[in-house]
Amino acid sequence: MIGRQVETGFGGIIDLLCIEYNGDILIVELKRDKTPREITAQVLDYASWAKDLSNEKITEIANRYLGDKGPLEEVFKGKFGTEIPEILNEHHKMLVVASEIDSSSERIIKYLSDSYGVGINAITFQYFKNEEEREFLAKVFLIEPSEAEYRIQTKSTSKRKPPLSYEELQEIAEKNGVGDSYKRIVVELSKCFDQSVTTMSSIAFIGIMGERKSRNTIFSILPKESDSEKGVRFTVYIDRFADYFHIEKRVAIDALPSYEKKAEYEEWAGEFGGGFFREEEQIEKFLANSTEFKQKGTNFS
Length: 301
Fold this sequence. Notes:
By secondary structure, the protein is an alpha+beta fold. The chain has two domains: 3-155, no CATH class; 166-296, no CATH class. The chain is 37% helix and 29% strand. The protein has helices spanning 39-50, 55-66, 72-80, 103-116, 145-155, 166-175, 179-189, 238-245, 249-255, 280-296, and strands at residues 3-7, 13-19, 25-34, 92-100, 120-129, 135-141, 195-198, 203-209, 214-227, 231-237, 260-261, 272-277. Helix 6 (166-175) runs antiparallel to helix 7 and helix 8 (238-245) crosses helix 9 (249-255). The longest helix is centred in the last third of the chain and has 17 residues, at 280-296. The two termini are 41 Å apart.
């Protein structure tokens, strides 16, 4: 989040202004109850202002909101584990959050997304408490996020190349002779981390960490740099890996089949390195350890 109650140049006030890992801007409009009929027009009006925000203006808004927690560049690196993109706001998106979406808004949002690839979506939430007084929050997207993103990429005129799909990365791994090993690692690691995302060359596994619930890249698999002789290439932020699984750093390193430390990185990223999975036995051992770390949060023997 880079802004709250952000005034537009048209007299409106955006509830929340956010930036995504790829530099896209996200406008979030919050409604405690059922959405009013005019909500779609309202959020589109905000978007018409946000679409022209420059890098400089976005940075200004963010730094004003972040205050002592800033600047934006450092917060971005700490949150996403990568440098902030050179070009921001290539796309802008809109998200309506409410306890219920009225039928008119639902039809309009689906129409804009289906027909024109407009980056608009809605999410509903419900609060529950069971007999044991445990609290739950359920959320449902009107349009599945991956499908909404696909429509943006295929129907927009953006010059930015989209990330490769999971299927395309799998094809690269198969072409390089490590298809089966790559697939097994990806499937099992997806159970150990909070999320995975694809880039133009890799699949990155994300962990949500710390009091600020930062979304950090921890482990990546790179099929383009893999082959049948060397094995499956991986990179890892080893300090984050240890922190995420609540293990000692030496235990994290011992869990890897090979590990070569790279040049020192800035404090926000910690130590960075990588290696190769060359044998099936190495893969099985690493996946078993990772699963145990996830389940127990204790050192493996």
